[in-house]
Automatic annotation (TrEMBL), chains A, B:
Cell cycle found in the keyword field: no
GO molecular function, one term: DNA binding
Domain HTH lacI-type: 3-57
PANTHER family hit by this protein: LACI-RELATED TRANSCRIPTIONAL REPRESSOR, LACTOSE OPERON REPRESSOR
Keyword Membrane: no
Alphabetically ordered keywords of this record: DNA-binding, Transcription, Transcription regulation
Source organism, top-level taxon: Bacteria
Originating organism: Jatrophihabitans lederbergiae
Protein name, entry field: LacI family DNA-binding transcriptional regulator
Length: 336, 336
DNA sequence: CTGTTAGCGCCTTCAC
DNA sequence: GTGAAGGCGCTAACAG
C-alpha cells in the first residue's frame, strides 16, 4: 500500500496538517517542524496522491489536448510546443486523439469536460462544426485551436488563414506563375480550413486578374500525403494544366511532389508547389518545400495563457486571437 | 457545481447506493428502480466524477504512454496504434513527452507511477539506461517498448533488432552492394538501439566476408533528419566511399537522401539507402525508401495486453516479447 | 505557528 | 433488492 500523509504524520509525531503544510510549501512553518517532517517524508519516500488532492481542491493541474490525428506532423509539432510550454507552467498535458470523427470528438470532449479529470481543454477540431460544439455545455473552459468553427462562444487561437493563403498565392504569381491550382479539403461548411484557404487563394487570383475557374480547385478527402495523387492527376489531365499548385497542407504538397515525380514533371521548373503548415519534413524533401509557417510556438503560448486565464476565472467575452505566420520560400517554388 | 450521485438520488427519491448500482450496471436492480434512476440521471445529465471513483477504487482506467519525442514519426505512429487499441479496451491513454532526457524521463515516470493517476505505464525509453530504471520502485506496472535497456526486471515488447538489421544489410548485399555504411546513434552503452542494430549490421557483413571497418560507421547525436547530413558528408569524404547506407531510422535515411541529393549523388544508381521504422513519410520520398517495418500494430496490442495482465495482478516473471517485422524493399535500394 | 475536524464524490462493506 | 454508514487521501476551516 502506498504511504499516506497520515503515515508520515505518525512517524514524525505531528498532525497531518503540518505535513501537508510542508509538502505544499506553506509559508508559516517552524524550522524544527520542517526538519522533523522532511526527515519522515524522506524516510517513507512519500508521494502525494494526486487523485485525492484533485478531488479535494477541485483542480488537477492537468489539461487535455484533443487532436484529430497525432500522426499528422502538424499536430504532433503543435502538441510538442504545447507540452513544452505547459511543463514550464507546471501543467500536465493529457494528449488524446479524436480521429477527427465528430462523434468521437464530442465523446472525448464530453468526458474530458465533465469528469473532472482536467481543468481545461485545448481542442483542435476539424470535423466538428459549430452547431455540435454549441450543444456542449462546458463545465470546464475550452479553447479552440485552428479555425473558428462557426460562431461558437469559445476562445480561439489561430492564424489569419485567408491572408496567409493570399500571400502564398501572391508569391507564386510574383514568380511568374499564371495557372495556379489549389488542392485540399472538401470546401464543406464544416471544413472551415479549406473554405478560408480557398477564399484567400481566390482573392489573390482575382486581384491579379488571373483565372479562378472551378477546375483549378481539386478537393481531397483529408489532408494527408496519400490524398494528393488523385487530385494531382485530375489537374494534370486538364487541357490547360496548372503551372503551380497551392496545397492546403504540407502533407498534401509532399504527396503532390511524389505524384508529379511519377508523372515525369519537374519541380519547380515545370511546375511550382507551395504547402501550408511548415512541418519539419518539408525542409528535407527534394526539392525542399515552400510553405506557410504558422507560429506554432506562439499558438501554444497564447492558447495556454488564454486557457489558464479562463481556469482562473476570467469572465471576458470569448476572443478570437490571431498569431503570426511566415511565408518560407524554398526550392519548390524558387530555384529554376 | 457539478451534479453528484447524491443529487440524483434525492431527485429520484432513492439512496445513493441505488444510483451507483444503476450507473455501474450492477446485477440486481429492480426494473422500477432502473427506470426511476435513469430518468433522474438523464434529467440532471449526471456524469460520474472520475477522480472520486478512482480514489475510491484505487484504479483509474487510465494508463500513461511515455515517449521521448512526439514529433518523431515513429513514436506518433506507435502512439496512434496504442490509443486505438486502448480505446477498444475502454482504457484512456495519457501521452506524455519525456524529451528523451533521462532526468525528465525519470521524473515523469516517478510521477506517473506514484501519484495514482494511472494504473500502468508504457515506457518507450531511449536515454534511460537499465541502472537508472532499476532504481525506480514501481508502485504501478511498467512495460517497456523498444529495446530492453539492460536486465531491468520489467516486461518488454519489441522486435529482434539484430536480426532485422542483418536482414536489411543482407538485402543490400544481395543487390550487389559491397561497401555498406551504417549511420545512426551513439553506440553508447545506454543507446541500446544503435548497439543492437550495429551488431546485426556487422554480423551480415562478416557473414558475407565484406569489410566492417570502423570508418563505415558514422554516429549521430540523435535519430532525426537533421542529424544525417554531417554523417553522410563524413562517409563520402573517405577515399573509398560507400555504395550503400544502412540508416538506423527512416528519419536519418530521409536526411541522408537530402544530403546525397545536395552532393549530386543519385539513389539508388550511385548509392542505395535503407532505413528503419517504416514511417508513412517513407512511401512518399523520391525515391521511396526501403525500410524495416516493425509491426506497430502488434507492438501496441502485445504491450497493452501485457500491461493489463500486470494491472490485473499477474505475477509471472518479466518477459521479453518479440513481435514481427518486415523488410519493405522500395525504390531507394532496388530500382536502377 | 500547529492540531482537530470535516468533507470533496464515490463505492462498498454491512445490515435490513 | 435496497438503505445507512464509513473511508479512499488530501486540504480548508476553524480553533488554540
Amino acid at each position: 500500500m502506498a504511504v499516506t500523509l497520515r503515515d508520515v504524520a505518525a512517524l514524525a509525531g505531528v498532525s497531518p496538517r503540518s505535513v501537508s503544510n510542508v509538502v505544499n510549501d506553506f509559508r508559516y512553518v517552524s524550522p524544527a517542524m520542517q526538519a522533523k517532517v522532511r526527515a519522515a517524508l524522506d524516510e517513507l519516500d512519500y508521494k502525494p496522491n494526486l487523485l485525492a488532492r484533485g478531488l479535494r481542491q477541485g483542480r488537477t493541474g492537468t489539461i487535455a489536448l484533443l487532436l484529430p490525428e497525432i500522426t499528422v506532423a502538424y499536430f504532433s509539432e503543435l502538441a510538442h510546443e504545447i507540452v513544452e510550454r505547459a511543463s514550464q507552467l507546471g501543467i500536465t498535458v493529457m494528449i488524446d486523439e479524436t480521429s477527427g470523427a465528430p462523434n468521437r470528438e464530442l465523446a472525448l470532449l464530453e468526458v474530458a469536460m465533465r469528469s473532472s479529470w482536467v481543468d481545461g481543454v485545448l481542442l483542435s477540431t476539424l470535423g466538428l462544426n459549430g452547431a455540435a460544439l454549441a450543444g456542449v455545455k462546458s463545465d470546464v473552459p475550452v479553447v479552440l485551436l485552428g479555425e473558428r468553427t462557426a460562431k461558437s462562444a469559445l476562445d480561439h487561437v489561430g492564424i489569419d488563414n485567408v491572408r496567409a493563403s493570399r500571400d502564398a498565392v501572391q508569391h507564386l504569381i510574383d514568380s511568374g506563375r499564371h495557372r495556379i491550382a489549389a488542392i485540399g479539403g472538401s470546401h464543406a461548411p464544416s471544413d472551415m480550413t479549406s473554405r478560408l484557404r480557398l477564399k484567400g487563394y481566390r482573392a489573390a487570383l482575382r486581384a491579379a486578374g488571373l483565372p479562378t475557374e472551378d477546375y483549378l480547385y481539386a478537393r481531397t478527402p483529408k489532408y494527408r500525403r496519400g490524398d494528393a495523387a488523385v487530385a494531382v492527376r485530375a489537374l494534370l489531365a486538364h487541357p490547360e494544366p496548372p503551372d503551380a499548385l497551392f496545397c492546403f497542407s504540407d502533407e498534401l504538397a509532399i504527396g503532390s511532389l511524389r505524384e508529379l515525380y511519377e508523372q515525369g514533371l519537374r519541380v519547380p521548373s515545370d511546375i511550382s508547389v507551395v504547402g501550408f503548415d511548415d512541418i519539419e519534413e518539408s525542409r528535407f524533401t527534394t526539392p525542399s518545400l515552400t510553405s506557410i509557417s504558422p507560429d506554432k510556438h506562439q499558438i501554444a503560448s497564447t492558447a495556454l495563457e488564454t486557457l489558464m486565464a479562463r481556469i482562473a476565472g476570467s469572465d471576458l467575452r470569448p476572443r478570437a486571437l490571431q498569431v503570426g505566420y511566415q511565408l518560407l520560400a524554398r526550392e519548390s517554388s524558387t530555384r529554376q
